[in-house]
Amino acid sequence: MDHRRSHNPNSGQQNRHSAHKRRRDDTGRRPNHHQSQSGSTPWQNPLCSRGLSTRRELYERDFPVYKQPVEVGCFSLDSERRFFNDSRQLRYYAEPDRNPHFDLKDGYKDRYVKRDENLKEKLDHILRWILSHCPYVDFVTWRGHLTKLLTTPYEAREGWLLAVTRFRGTLYISEVETEASRRERENRTERHAEMMYWGYKFEQYTCADNVHSLPDPGGVVNTNEGFCTVVQTRLSDHRLLFSGEVDCRDKDPKAPAPPACYVELKTSLEITTPKQFKLIKWWAQSFLPGVPRVVAGFRDHDGVVVAVETFPVSKMSQLIKNCWKPTVCMNFCCDFLSFVKQTATEDDPGVVYLFSFEPHRDVTYSIHRDSQYSFLPHWYVDEITRSQLSPHMPSCYHAFSSLAV
Ligand code: 0WD
Ligand code: CA
């Protein structure tokens, strides 16, 4: 697996550009001036023009230390989006023919239950998991949010907004939908909506509910259902805990332990290799939790899968040579997390530091107190606060207290 470590863990420090201290980059591109305030306490001069550069050249240095991700738990979401602290929704990969002719359109009209996209769950499922496991880490987030960070230096189309709250020393990162993305979602064409279904339908053709059963293409596709792995790892000096949805696992009982037995499923129109940016996304999404292979279903314009191919994640960066570099992705993410640590200093569940990126711009931020951006739910804040105060609940007390060295 390609979880490379720097030969000398300190070697990156010497040639490390402090990308976020640069006020203006060499091409003269202006950082966004996007430091606004909301809430009751006005901030005086909040580091006015400081941003984090997204220029690729700044991140071309040694690969940072990225520890082998360890699965520390998992959870499942059922057909009604109810949380279960177990793997009941984990499915098993059933290898299809190389040229299967799966019809991905089948069932769109009559056997499709779609998750309510207007319901923003934020970090709620992960927080629920944390309450029963009490890890101590620097950052808590979804894997998908980290994927967006990894691909940022190569992103030319879509911006992002990430809300960050520091609470009891841990930094929580939760995405906020951008205006552009909300507009796109609300104005989706019928064709686009159907094509989103195709990815889930491919999963149904290739996943079985049990080790000994077969996929059931006649069943209902319900996108409320999901199995999520929770992994812990370290990127340079940032201890991370994140969760990501896993499509299925190798059904061989002798397969390696999670996450090495997990399989990511994708569909793509381009035959043999997907387009460059799609490939970066595939790589980033699976590299982060240590998922070693992606199975791609190549489809035609009519939603029929004409070929299936397996891509080892460790070989993906060589598929389209010299176009993108994993080290740029990882160093950018690492510097972003340092930028967040330095910026989000006030430890308060009601305070949100909102980090903002638009293509070809620096990352900037604004600060919001008790605003619509606050995302840590009361049940979580109350429970953590209570468990740290009560001598009768020692587990979270120890986990969230002085271990933050
Ligand atoms: O409410 C929201 N806006 C978000 C919800 C934002 C980010 C995540 N989530 C939740 C969803 O509840 C989902 O259960 O995260 C879970 C997935 O998290 P992730 O693994 O961190 O996300 P990502 O890597 O972006 O997506 C993995 C898979 C996707 O597979 P593909 O092959 O398309 O990358 O999770 C699914 C999707 O199958 N997925 C979702 N399913 C339901 N609702 C969502 C979503 N909003 N986002 C991704
Ligand atoms: Ca998938």
UniProtKB/TrEMBL annotation:
Q: Name one GO biological process term.
A: nuclear-transcribed mRNA catabolic process
One annotated GO molecular function is: nucleotide binding
> Cellular component GO terms, alphabetically?
cytosol; nucleus
Superkingdom of this entry's organism?
Eukaryota
What function does the entry list?
Decapping enzyme for NAD-capped RNAs: specifically hydrolyzes the nicotinamide adenine dinucleotide (NAD) cap from a subset of RNAs by removing the entire NAD moiety from the 5'-end of an NAD-capped RNA.
PANTHER family in the cross-refs: DECAPPING AND EXORIBONUCLEASE PROTEIN, DOM-3 RELATED
Q: What is this protein called?
A: Decapping nuclease
Q: Which organism is it from?
A: Sparus aurata (Gilthead sea bream)
Query: What is this protein's gene name?
Result: DXO
